[in-house]
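Hi support team,

I submitted a single chain yesterday and got back a structure, but I'm not sure I'm reading the token output correctly. Could someone confirm the output below corresponds to the sequence I sent? I've pasted both exactly as they appear in my results page.

Thanks,
R.
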Amino acid sequence: MIRQIVQIGNPALREIASRVEEGEIASKKVQDLIDDLIETMRHANGAGLAATQIAEPYRVCVIEVNKNPRYPYKPDIPLTVLINPKVAFLTEERINVYEGCLSVPNLRGKVDRCPEVRIEGFDRDGQSLSFVAKGISAGTFQHELDHLDGLVFTDRMNDASSLSTIDEFAANYEEEFKQQVISIVKNYGS
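Hi R., thanks for writing in. Yes, this is the structure output for that exact sequence:
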């Protein structure tokens, strides 16, 4: 079912999500939540969606990039369901990249992200996951995990002067950012 995505200012976005008990992962409630997240994310052309963005306070998020029209420069990420995810930074390096968010409509802004992270958690079948995400894709995972801790990308901005509407981003910054993404992909592989 396509759910309503809450917008910045909604208290649900500031909640710290609760862990899902491992014995509950297979429950209809959790599986329906996962299905709703996937359907809602795809309907909105999102690169990811966290449960808190549909006002569900659980540590569940989904990520998928497949020729996304909102982010045509993002490398593809196969559908990934994360339950109780954790992130570990694997380098001190940071990249300063533009991000947008379905819960912060019509805006983009620059955020520092670690370009190499390890993600751990469970998939929708309750199987343990552990993988490394790099480059722009690493930022996508960090963005969604931030939502589970009550953060939106604007909280991570060091300089609010980069905040722009989608139209202004497209007119003034997108071409330069696409070149930055090409460079990041060349350096990190994704």
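A quick pointer for reading it: The chain has a mean pLDDT of 96. Let us know if anything else looks off.

Best,
Support desk
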